[in-house]
Design a protein that fits this description.
CATH superfamily of the largest domain in chain A: Fumarylacetoacetase-like, C-terminal domain
Radius of gyration of chain A: 21 Å
Number of strands of chain A: 26
Largest sheet of chain A: 8 strands, mixed
Number of domains of chain A: 2
Shape of chain A: globular
Strand content of chain A: 25-35%
Oligomer: homodimer
Structural class of chain A: alpha+beta
CATH topology of the largest domain in chain A: Fumarylacetoacetate hydrolase, domain 2
Distance between the termini of chain A: 53 Å
């Protein structure tokens, strides 16, 4: 990959390198929302850039509360904007140099949900996670269900409760069935958990009754975010048979604010795990479809120091995004720009790479100790969970920033 | 209830009586979408009515592709519009009489989805349906799962594939596991089914972290529609463990175009079934919360006569809408104007009141015979399914019209 250098001061370890240039929605103090591209510690204000006629898109498209309209212009336009901005940041004689007001310090802004999310789907595509859950909740000898290696299992989640990084989440209350009890009780969840996931955001509408093949899937993926699928294990356990998770999940999911484009991640493609048995023809794919994205979860108690509790990687996924999208639409289900499709918890083989407290504490049986000496099996009130992720190769870094959320006590 | 008489010619058996006045979105030939109220065989064009200053709302609100903005004005406004229109249709000296262009024949319009649907939730609230399914798929002796009488079980569905009555649905293809097979096969669903449901449409936004009590639930319900939750039983059976229905459901759901307000249904409230064991405090409710709405499903083969295959009633529901909404939000899950919450299949005790072919044909073992002599266990290509519903009491009728859909062959 060709080395690129910007005239702008970009910290060497920044997630938002000249190779990344992710899209997001921000607002300055008391200002309106607008679209931007992250670069180092700054944001390129795309509305201002368009007003200055440095890119060939109507400023109107960037003066919105979401990126949906911009994404709807199609990859030809969105990729050109990204490459034009890259050019403006590289060019030593860039007209952008004379317009410092277009570069906004990230420290001065508030970030917002980047898209209006029409539908949200959550997959269950890590074989290590599905196996761990199967061992704990079902049969250790037959941990994976019979359909798991044939289907990228997924289910519909709640779009309304997806929030941007930094939004606090209140501990949910609900029905639980305590061990050995004969009737359910009502109380705040005692087994509140995170799930380390990534989500992709769709970039094109389809018509009901049509399908997307694995070969064309990338055309329908705008980009990716970090995704924390907060889960209340005790509520989930009592409610989920037979129709799946509901209140155990829909009290909140958090996403990182910057959408890293699938094009920026192209250099980090790697082969996925071998799929055995062979999948049905509509799920076959060509080339490398996994992505080497290093992921980390940190837990920070109130007024305490954060501590890494998981180091995982997006490349572990058994089912890749092309297969997920092909499966999701094989029955004719339509998609809209701004749908979110999350991966499911991303766990690796090693205990240190497990993507949820459920697995890390093995169902609550193995507490972990934090730097302040306190222990955790699940998330306590006022704990903050921070997920980070980046791809890196040959000195080139493309990162996601972080998704962060603090759990507030139940009312 | 006071008898009301309109100067307009309304067929005596019309679903859209002077007591009903449901809201919908229509367009005339080559015209733009606008909001209307159904009355007899006509539609009151609300944009035209507002332009003529016969109601006190900006015409802009009615010149939209959905009712969301109108509903967002709040019940004080939406109920007033409905009652003002009722007054204009009763008053012998009504200024509406001199403006016939405001009354559009229903035969001249196309109907559209009435709302932009943010999230769609499907409940599972008929004890007869849940018991029938449990008997067929699990244990006939313990058909109801342990959580069923404690929780209004629900799950998230796909909003993007909800279509308005009249939209054809293509038979979905997908993975199935044939009986005694060792590997799944890929083919069109052979067990395509309808589900007779009703759905309510929410009328108010809430904030994440807040809940709606059963007492205030009605304030959050704008109105109801008929809902056909098309289901591919063979796809569903193979995929649904452990995370619930996905491709077996999300290839399409059909709704009736007219939203009958909860206020119009008030006279038809009745007591629901006794709930035993007693429910947790947050699910307790006061007064009658079920609705006596007669429901019917007809099946019409291509070029054939339609035949009633089910006669059910919304009053059979074990869990009512107030309980569903209270449960859905007890964990802080937020709702938006235009969310759809469907009841789940509405079956009664009697075989003639079963709300799906799965139950009517008892898992495919008891075919029914149609008027043309053909038999059905599930829905065949080019069959049309029509659902109708109305409430009637003391000679007063409030109906839903119909939701209709034809199954097209798979590609």
């Amino acid at each position: 990959m060709k080395k690129l250098t910007s005239w702008l001061d970009i910290p060497a370890d920044s997630d938002f390198s000249i190779y990344n240039l992710p899209f997001g929605i921000f607002s300055k103090k008391k200002g309106k929302t607008r679209a931007g591209i992250a670069i180092g510690n700054h944001i390129v204000d795309l509305a201002a850039l368009a007003e200055a006629e440095l890119i060939d898109v109507s400023p109107f498209v960037f003066r919105q509360s979401t990126l949906n309209e911009f994404i709807g212009l199609g990859k030809e336009v969105t990729n050109k904007v990204r490459l034009d901005v890259q050019g403006l940041l590289i060019d030593a004689d860039s007209p952008l140099k004379k317009k410092p007001e277009i570069l906004v310090p990230q420290a001065d802004v508030q970030m917002h949900l980047p898209v209006h999310i029409g539908d949200y789907t959550d997959f269950y595509s890590s074989i290590e996670h599905a196996t761990n859950v199967g061992k704990m909740f079902r049969d250790p000898e037959n941990a994976l269900l019979p359909n798991w290696r044939h289907i990228p299992v997924g289910y519909h989640g709640r779009a309304s409760s997806i929030v941007v990084s930094g939004t606090p989440i209140k501990r949910p209350k609900g029905q639980l069935m305590p061990k050995d009890a004969t009737a359910p009780v009502f109380k705040p969840s005692g087994r509140l958990d995170f799930e380390l996931e990534m989500g992709f955001i769709t970039g094109k509408n389809t018509q009901l009754g049509t399908s997307i093949g694995t070969k064309e899937a990338e055309d329908y993926i705008f980009g990716l975010v970090l995704f924390n699928d907060w889960s209340a294990r005790d509520i989930q356990k009592w409610e989920y048979v037979p129709l799946g998770p509901f209140l155990g999940k829909n009290f909140g999911s958090s996403i990182s604010p910057w959408i890293v484009t699938i094009e920026a991640l192209e250099p980090f493609k790697v082969a996925g795990p071998k799929q055995d048995p062979e999948v049905l023809p509509y799920l076959k794919y060509e080339g490398n479809q996994n992505y080497d994205v290093q992921l980390e979860v940190a837990l920070q108690p109130e007024n305490g120091e954060e501590q890494t509790v998981s180091s995982s990687n997006f490349k572990y996924m058994y089912w890749n995004m092309a297969q997920q999208l092909a499966h999701h639409t094989i029955n004719g289900c339509n998609i809209h720009i701004g749908d979110v499709m999350a991966s499911g918890t991303i766990s690796g083989k090693d205990e240190s790479s497990y993507g949820s407290m459920l697995e890390i504490s093995w169902g609550g049986s193995k507490p972990i100790t934090l730097k302040d000496g306190s222990t955790r099996t699940f998330i306590e009130d006022n704990d903050t969970v921070i997920m980070r992720g980046f791809a890196e190769k040959d000195g080139i870094k493309v990162g996601f920033g972080e998704v962060r959320g603090t759990i507030l006590p139940a009312d």
